[in-house]
Design a protein that fits this description.
Chain lengths: 279, 324, 441
């Protein structure tokens, strides 16, 4: 009695499984999508983070487009020269080598340097705060420290420290996804260099007002412009900037910079520093 | 004088006094008469069940907030209301470990595993009640008669109706049932004690009349039709109104904001669905009582009802966007 | 009593100053006149540092079609022209004037009252545009542009907005009680600009019976309808006011003139009357100074460009508990980050408050109470819009009717979870339009 009662159950479930298996087999044959093996090979080479730096929404779309057009000027900024070489060998073409870039913060207005204007209470988002008022700092060009850019960084290279965004040079791939995320235009992409001098300020206010709002603001004092032997520094609308192509990293500008905290910063890119062992 | 530190926020700068806390504590207050009456009817045991249910609900809420690394919301009143509602749905003689288990199911499984307050699909107290009912059918249907000194068990009117038929209910007293002098769970018996709470919630606009009215109305209509067809075979709609948890369910459980539809149309469909399902389960189902099952089944339909509204808004807009 | 069809709320009215007559504030030490006091492109400043200006002299010229002139509020010397905090929350090019104390009018302005009926339509419109009249209810749309709608639209209804539904504000209320003749004349001037049968109404909330009585006395003989409206927010929003008075609904993407309506503020009507009949540019306005944290709440007539800090001093300073200073009403106003900001043409009130709601910990999750849905006067689903905005899905949110939101703030007001519903919607609006710009670029 007991031993027989399980037979119909096993039989019915078994046959059900069999029929469903046949259906799956049929469906997988019928709806099989042929995929170009080159595309999947290229795709495997790509970083796979879908950051959008190449102009395509995802790595796989970049791969498809690259295989279809074989356009050597298509570059993946994240992978850099190494990847370009690999892609070139895989496709049998010579790929253009992207210039490695890195993210630079044009503001030193952390809570120690910049004066606060008013406390912001509400949605923790830079754009939302920008709708309520000009910014949490007295300087209306400053980083608000609410960190909307962080969500756009796929590489965990950004953090907020003491009310100012800080970039981890080692993690930053230069994809540029964070740049449009800043309502104040504090973030920018610059070519990687062993040593880079740059004006870490975005304030177009007049000198007196900039000085009132921040210890590290560029007051457009002209001193660095006069001192620079290469004429690599220009002042536009009360803000100095260093033309990187002309700059030879002599460091004379930083010596004459009169602001309380130098508005000119020297930054060394970690990758190059490591290889050359610069202190 | 130190310059004033101004704060900037976005408009509006005045907000209504209502908060999650005020909503929840008002529901708790509205349930208070029913709780007090249950203690009067069923004695210290009822107080014990209510107390254990509330305290364990709040403790579970506190613990799960800690585990989920969220700011503790154990005192925002939602756990209190869940505990209170759960107790009102239990028989007074239930072993206390079962009560604690019910609180666990309500807070941890029904509420927080779905995402916490605002995201739960099913009414937590009802999930716990149904869980206990299915797991421990005997203990959960051991009703005690009010004022019984020696903890004498008795069958609820709906139970009698299901097992023994209409004839066994010859001595059923309508007025007694209205006051609550009948066996049943803590909160469902006394309709009289539930009404002031319901009126309070309606007055404070924490609930609207749509769900309770359609729920009760549909149940009455449905059972009424069968009563008219065969008065000897089916109980009267009045009997259905006054026994079981119809009033408790319609005013306090089906109207739960989180698990009821947003739009008016959705609420009316929801109420009607609850009513029809309740009547069907009571008349022909395996269980004597159908309110909990009906509400839970309709809870599952709520996302669909809300989606319907949203898709209609979208459909209305789509052509104009495409044209532009 | 008339009202709009859907939604609405009733926040505590708090009209502390409704019984206080308008006082005149003495001229301040320095005036900061922003070039952007209206919707649209800021005016271009036409003065240099060191220039002497007369009262009423044009210091900012309208730049483009939707823009407005700006005039010197008093005579004096230009001290600086620079970026300065603006009550809108941002910075704006601002002209600083040091008054010379003579308060001399430029010749040809502030003339004795003339009969506007003798003026041609073009002359009337020119005077309104030249005088820099903008909507004084808050948005600041240039009146000259509003009064010349496209030729293919027929205007049959002119409405003056005296609802003043925002809590605290009483500036329009006092003006209605004190200057009913000027309002009626302003309304007649507006009406005369349109052909055919044009009916004119003044909508007033029922909590201002003295204003209703004062205007009725003047209006009845002139065929102007005084409509008493239910005291309900946002009764004074343009779309709601049109719905309440005419029963017409202004749909998404439509402007009031699509429905044959034009709505002007009470204060704008007076400004139009003064511009047309007295050739007086818009350089001053009545402002309600109120809130629990200011010593003397009052209604004052004030020069455009007066800084908030001087106003606070004039009203007996604020208490130490003040944590927010707000321009406009508490429902749609703006919190200030500095007391250096000046009064503009659109500042209807300045509130000094202690907002205790700020100390509680932020937004909580939606408990689906559906109050925002029943409060929304535009028949939207604010929770849905806010959720979609939070997901930054700016394509879908358009399908949910985002453009139809008037940002009245009723949803945020009623939300028991204290969600920033209207701020999320505004956030989505800004970022969605930014995205569109970027895509088309």
């Amino acid at each position: 009695m007991y031993s027989e009662s399980f037979i119909p159950a096993v039989a019915s479930l078994g046959s059900l499984a069999f029929v469903l298996g046949i259906i799956i087999l049929f469906v997988s044959k019928k709806f099989f999508v042929a995929e170009d093996p080159t595309v999947s090979m290229i795709n495997a080479l790509l970083p796979g983070v879908n950051c959008g730096a190449c102009g395509y929404p995802s790595c796989s779309q970049f791969a498809e487009e690259l295989v279809r057009t074989r356009n050597p000027s298509m570059t993946c900024p994240v992978g850099g020269g190494e990847l370009a070489e690999k892609l070139g060998t895989a496709l049998g073409i010579t790929m253009a080598e992207p210039k490695p870039v890195t993210c630079v913060v044009l503001c030193q207005g952390h809570n120690g340097n910049a004066r606060e204007s008013a406390e912001y209470v509400g949605i923790r988002d830079c754009w939302a705060a920008a709708q309520a008022f000009a910014g949490t700092k007295q300087c209306r060009f400053a980083c608000t420290g609410l960190g909307s850019c962080i969500a756009f960084c796929d590489f965990n290279a950004m953090r907020i420290e003491n009310g100012l965004v800080v970039i981890d040079k080692e993690l930053c791939t230069g994809c540029g996804a964070c740049v449009p995320a800043c309502p104040y235009g504090v973030l920018t992409m610059q070519e990687k260099k062993t040593e880079r001098y740059f004006i870490a300020c975005s304030s177009h206010d007049r000198g007196a007002e900039t000085r009132k709002a921040c210890d590290a603001g560029c007051t457009a004092c002209q001193k660095c412009v006069r001192e620079c032997p290469e004429q690599a520094i220009v002042i536009d609308n009360f803000l100095a900037s260093i033309i990187q192509e002309k700059c030879t990293s002599c460091g004379k500008c930083i010596e004459v910079c009169p602001t309380k905290v130098n508005c000119i910063l020297l930054e060394r890119d970690m990758e190059t520093v490591k290889s050359k062992k610069v202190p | 004088m130190e310059p004033l530190k101004l704060k900037v926020s976005y408009a509006p700068f005045v907000r209504s006094k209502d908060s999650i806390e005020s909503v929840m504590y008002n529901v708790a207050v509205a349930l208070l008469p029913a709780t007090l009456v249950s203690i009067y009817f069923f004695g210290w045991r009822a107080l014990l069940v209510t107390g254990v249910s509330i305290v364990s609900s709040i403790c579970f809420e506190w613990a799960i907030d800690k585990i989920r690394k969220k700011p503790t919301a154990c005192l925002d009143g939602s756990a209190l209301v869940t505990g209170q509602l759960l107790a009102l749905n239990l028989p007074s003689g239930l072993p206390l470990w079962m009560v604690i288990m019910g609180a666990f199911v309500a807070i941890v499984i029904a509420k927080h595993l779905f995402g916490g307050l605002g995201f739960n699909i099913f009414n937590p107290a009802l999930v716990a009640r149904v869980f206990l009912l299915i797991s421990f059918p005997a203990a959960m249907t051991e009703w005690y008669a009010p004022f019984s000194v020696d903890m004498q068990t008795a069958a609820s009117p709906l139970g009698i109706l299901k097992t023994d038929g209409l004839q066994a209910l010859a001595d059923f007293n309508t007025l007694d049932a209205f006051y609550g002098i009948r066996p049943g769970s803590l909160g469902e018996t006394s309709i009289l004690a539930l009404l002031p709470g319901a009126a309070w919630l309606l007055y404070k606009k924490y609930i609207t009349w749509h769900i309770p009215a359609t729920f009760i109305g549909t149940t009455l209509l449905f059972t009424g039709i069968f009563y008219l067809i065969d008065p000897l075979g089916y109980a009267s709609p009045l009997f259905h109104l006054l026994t079981g948890g119809l009033v408790l369910g319609a005013f306090f459980m089906a109207t739960d904001m989180v698990t009821s539809p947003l739009s008016l149309r959705g609420q009316i469909i929801f109420g009607i669905g609850c009513g029809v399902l309740t009547a069907i389960i009571r008349l022909w189902g395996g269980y004597p009582e159908g309110v909990s099952f009906a509400i839970l089944i309709m809870n599952a339909l709520v996302p669909l009802l809300d989606r319907w509204d949203v898709s209609e808004i979208k459909a209305k807009k789509q052509p104009s966007i495409k044209a532009a | 009593m008339k009202t709009f069809k859907t939604g609405g709320i009733h926040p505590p009215e708090q009209k502390l100053t409704s019984g206080k007559a308008v006082e005149v504030m003495p001229h301040p030490q320095e005036l900061a006149v922003p070039m952007s006091q209206h919707l649209g492109k800021p005016a271009k400043s036409v003065v240099k540092v060191g220039d002497e200006v007369k009262k009423g002299q044009r210091i900012g010229a309208a730049d483009g079609f939707i823009s407005a002139n700006v005039h010197a509020p008093t005579s004096g010397k230009i001290k600086a022209v620079k970026q300065h905090p603006h009550p809108g929350g941002q910075y704006s090019m601002t002209v600083f004037i040091t008054p010379d104390g003579k308060d001399e009018w430029l010749e040809g302005l502030n003339t004795p009252e003339c009969d506007w009926k003798k003026l041609s339509k073009e002359e009337i419109l020119k005077r309104i545009t030249d005088s820099g009249i903008v909507g004084m209810g808050g948005a600041g749309f240039p009146s000259g542009v509003k009064l010349s709608p496209p030729k293919d639209k027929t205007i049959d209804t002119i409405i003056l907005n005296g609802a003043e539904c925002e809590p605290f504000l009483t500036a329009d209320h006092r003006v209605m009680v004190e200057e009913p003749e000027a309002i009626i004349k302003g309304l007649e001037i507006i009406t005369s600009l349109f052909q055919g049968k044009v009916s004119a109404y003044i909508g007033i909330e029922s909590n201002k019976p003295d204003a209703v009585a004062a205007l009725k006395k003047q209006a009845d003989s002139k065929g102007i309808g005084i409509v008493v409206l239910e005291t309900k927010y946002p009764q004074g929003a343009e779309k709601q006011l049109i719905n309440a008075i005419t029963g017409r609904t202004v749909n998404e993407g439509e402007l009031p003139f699509d429905k044959g309506c034009l709505v002007h503020n009470i204060a704008t009507a007076i400004a139009i009357y003064e511009a047309v009949c007295k050739n007086k540019p818009l350089i001053e306005r009545v402002v309600t100074i109120s809130g629990m944290e200011i010593h003397t709440a009052r209604n004052i007539r004030i020069l455009v460009g007066t800084k908030f800090s001087e106003i606070a001093a004039f009203c007996g300073s604020m208490t130490e508990k003040t944590n927010q200073v707000i321009t406009g009403g508490p429902m749609m106003g703006k919190a200030q980050f500095s007391l250096d900001v000046p009064v503009t043409k659109t500042t209807s009130g300045i509130l000094f408050i202690n907002n205790r709601g700020l100390e509680k910990s932020g937004e909580k999750t939606c408990i689906r109470c559906s109050r925002c849905i029943s409060a929304c006067p535009q028949n939207l689903q604010p929770w849905l819009l806010a959720n979609t905005a939070q997901l930054r899905d700016f394509e879908t949110i358009e399908l949910y009717g985002m453009a139809n939101c008037t940002e009245c703030g009723s949803c945020s007001y009623v939300c028991p979870s204290k969600r920033e519903l209207v701020h999320w919607i505004k956030y989505a609006k800004t970022l969605a339009s930014k995205r569109k710009q970027r895509q088309s670029a």
